[in-house]
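pls design
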């Protein structure tokens, strides 16, 4: 039989979980570290737009294999791809320079921080005890904390629970 105290604990637990989920949605980034390209600029945007427009014109013309429309499409695509490669190289050069500067200054902390963020793959946890279902994982955490956290003094725990229920009754 489930007592009123169990419902109260479940309510508190559900509120804590909802607060944590809300905080996670607001403050944890949803993009990988390589998503934002600091080397992307207006010039690349213009090359991309020109390539997209040439590709649309090429499609509208029936995808010809030769002629001025096909040549323009190939030329704009080549410019766009070359520009991307050139600006990406700037990314690796700047990291290399930063790493070299950190080494020359004998700043080991900055050196290893830069090294880890750029060259190491972080192992991602894909499950808990061979489970990937969120409900199963939540249940495993609940079971773990139920067994790990028991009151030192059961009488005092019961009196605190009763006091909490009285305060809820007074509030409503």
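designed seq:
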């Amino acid at each position: 039989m489930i007592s009123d105290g169990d419902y109260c604990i479940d309510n508190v637990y559900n509120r804590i979980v909802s607060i944590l989920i809300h905080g996670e949605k607001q403050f944890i980034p949803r993009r990988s570290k390589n998503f934002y390209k600091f080397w992307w600029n207006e010039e690349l945007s213009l090359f991309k737009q020109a390539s997209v427009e040439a590709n649309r014109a090429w499609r509208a013309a029936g995808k010809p294999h030769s002629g001025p429309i096909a040549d323009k499409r190939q030329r704009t695509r080549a410019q766009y791809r070359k520009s991307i490669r050139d600006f990406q190289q700037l990314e690796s050069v700047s990291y290399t320079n930063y790493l070299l500067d950190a080494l020359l200054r004998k700043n080991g902390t900055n050196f290893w921080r830069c090294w880890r963020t750029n060259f190491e793959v972080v192992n991602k946890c894909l499950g808990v005890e061979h489970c990937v279902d969120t409900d199963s994982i939540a249940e495993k955490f609940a079971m773990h904390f139920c067994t790990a956290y028991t009151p030192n003094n059961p009488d005092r725990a019961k009196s605190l629970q009763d006091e909490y229920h009285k305060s809820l009754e007074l509030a409503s």
